[in-house]
Each structure stands twice: as structure tokens, then as C-alpha cells.
Amino acid sequence: MLYYITIFIVIGFLIGMATSENEDNAFQIIIFITLAWAFVFGWWAVASFVELIIGYSIYRKRDFISKFLDLDLNPWIMWTLIILVLLVKAILKH
After folding, report:
1. Cα three-residue angle 88-1-66, rounded to 5 degrees
2. 30 and 56 in contact (C-beta within 8 Å)?
3. Contacts of 19 by beta carbon, 8 Å cutoff, 6+ apart
4. Which of 24, 36, 30 is nearest to 49 (CA)?
5. Measured between alpha carbons, how far is 49 from 32 in angstroms, rounded to an integer?
6. pTM of the prediction?
7. CA dist 80 to 13, 66, 69, 75, Å?
8. What DSSP assignment string belongs to 70-85?
């Protein structure tokens, strides 16, 4: 389950990167992925929708987060570190 959470958050983040110019395209892609996932896994599509939105929101708020943390890192390095910290934290909970 942690695998799917991570995958969909990362996919949502990548959707944000790919569609940074046009928000409507991002939501169309997210809806399409959710509907496709619903045909395969049914109600789990609701969870995937939420995870995609979380990933997309993280991308949209990246400037706020980097200013809040006062980091002057390459964005790829910063987000890799944040994702690794969240994964380790989730693994240690179990």
C-alpha cells in the first residue's frame, strides 16, 4: 500500500511539472488517470485521486515550502530528500 501511495504522489508531482503552464490540463490528466484506475481497482480510485492531488499540490507549493525551510538547494535534490524522509518515516512506523 505504501508503494501505491508513493507512486501516485510522485505521478501527481510529475503532472504538476509537466503542466505547470496550464492547470486545466493537469486536472484533466488526473481525472483520466483516476477513471482508468477505477476500471482496474474500483473504489481504490478515490484514494489514487487524493494521492495525485497531494502530489500536484506539493509541486504547486514548492516555492512556499523551500522559503519556509530556508533551503537554497536544487529543486530536484530538495524534493528527493523530502520524499526519502517521508518514506523512511512511514517505514519506521511499521
Report:
1. 45
2. yes
3. 25, 26, 29
4. 30
5. 10
6. 0.66
7. 12, 13, 15, 8
8. T--S-HHHHHHHHHHH
Question: Can you list the alpha helix ranges (DSSP code H) found in 19-74?
Answer: 23-41, 44-60, 62-69
For the stretch 16-26, pLDDT in tens is: 888 877 778 88
Residue 55's CB is within 10 A of a number of other CB atoms, namely 25
Residue type, 25: N
Q: If pLDDT is split at 50, 70 and 90, which confidence band does 67 have? A: low
- Residue of 53, 78, 84 whose CA lies nearest to 65: 78
Q: Which helix (H) or strand (E) holds 6?
A: helix 2-18
Cell of 54: 497531494
